[in-house]
Specification:
With about 100 residues, the chain is an alpha+beta fold. The protein has one domain. Helices cover about 20% and strands about 35% of the residues. It has helices at about 45-55, 75-90; strands at about 1-5, 15-20, 25-30, 30-35, 65-70, 95-99. A six-stranded mixed beta sheet has the order 4-3-2-1-5-6, with helices on one face. The mean pLDDT is about 90.
Amino acid sequence: MTFTIIFKSTKRNAAYQLCFEPNAIWRKDMDWYLIPTRTVPYYQLGSLKELLIKEKLYQLEEKECMIIVQEEGIGTEEDLDTLKKDLANEGFSYKVATL
């Protein structure tokens, strides 16, 4: 699986892809953007915080986002569950759509 997160924002493009190559990597505009950890091949709780800080997403007025799940890729249901927990821990509500 691969996950695209679109944060609700009217000021700029706030879409990021979480893919596994083989470790979790945040991508923006198809470029490698942030690599939370190089030591494990799965998404770790807390890996969202660095992206939120770097992109100043804490400043969004509405903490809402959409997770788009694509079946292609090596991410797992466990990675998706961990991502959901991470978003909730950071105060974001979310909806999930599968393509």
